Amino acid sequence: MKQVQRRVACRTMRGMGDSIDRPSGATPSRAYWSRRRGLVPSFDTTQASRLIASLIRGFEQRGYLQEWFGKDCVDGRDKDGKAGHDHAAFVERRTFRADLWPAHEMWQDWDQDALLTAVEFYYDYVSLPTEGWFHDYAHCGDHFTAFDAAPARVEYRSEVNAILSHLGDGYELDSNGEVVHVAPSGYETLLAATPPPIAGKEYESRVASAIRKFRSRSSSPDDRRDAVRDLVDVLELMRPEVLQTVGRKDDAALFEIANKFAIRHYNAGQQKDYDPVWLSWMFYFYLATIHAVAHFAERAQGAAD
């Protein structure tokens, strides 16, 4: 039995001294024949669960879960990871679910809540192996000793989102590791952007909170209405900049939308019975307006200086 000390970030051993390249990132994707013909896939929960569980299994087999869940060794030199010996109990303590570990054995019973909880959980516990040693006895395989979570999470998000975007109305795993409703095409940059400094840190945190509330996978129509109201409140705080940018007449028109569609200042004369799609329109309208006003104000301040 021999142990071979080596770095393993982008290499894998085949035998004594023989090695092959192993890419550490996701394979670039492209649109194949059916997609180019406009056939867009749509997954139900069972299909998405099967694909996600298989993806998680692939990360596990490449050692991306060893930091937390350890390595079984053929000659009894098992090494527990940070999660300890009872993996199922560890997962249950973190998620309050007993049906997520191991994913490749549990996925057939997952509903959408279990699936999306699993997606978030495994994001937190994947890490790229960067150092370790190869145990060649009985093809035991790699024992990793050092890890880097950041690149593993980037790769995991890329792979998972290629599946989640076709589940129901579309979901995605954001950079905070939370599953949210996928952004409409073309709005991704707006959602990721930070308002210019002129808007102030208080505005920035309020806008970020409104975005999280609106895009949360568990958001109700009332939650989305609250998110729109939060953005209108931010715009209210920016009233001096709004007046400077659009003038008093157009300033009134901006707030009239929210006031007449039962977003703020509820009264009997407001329009309440409208399709929820208008909530999406108002949300992105006010979000874009906040950015536009802040940019114009920043430009004006720069000219004055």
Please give a quick description of this structure.
The protein has 305 residues and is mainly alpha-helical.
Portion of residues in beta strands equals: 5-15%
Any idea what the shape is? Answer: elongated
What is the terminal separation in angstroms? 73 Å
Number of helices: 12
**In percent, how helical is the residue content?**
40-55%
Overall number of structural domains: 2
- Report on the biggest sheet: 3 strands, antiparallel
Strands across the major sheet, in which order? 1-4-5
Mean pLDDT: 81
Number of strands: 7
Structural class: mainly alpha
Radius of gyration: 25 Å
Notable features of this structure?
305 residues, mainly alpha, two-stranded antiparallel ribbon, 11% strand, disordered N terminus
Would you kindly provide a written description of the structure presented here, covering whatever features stand out?
- This protein folds into two domains: 3-14 and 41-169, no CATH class; 188-304.
- The protein contains twelve helices and seven strands.
- 51% of the residues lie in helices and 11% in strands.
- With 305 residues, the protein is mainly alpha-helical.
- The strands form three sheets. A three-stranded antiparallel β-sheet has the order 1-4-5, with helices on one face. A two-stranded antiparallel sheet has the order 2-3. Strands 6-7 form a two-stranded antiparallel ribbon.
- The protein is elongated and about 80 Å long.
- Residues 1-24 and 265-271 have low confidence and may be disordered.
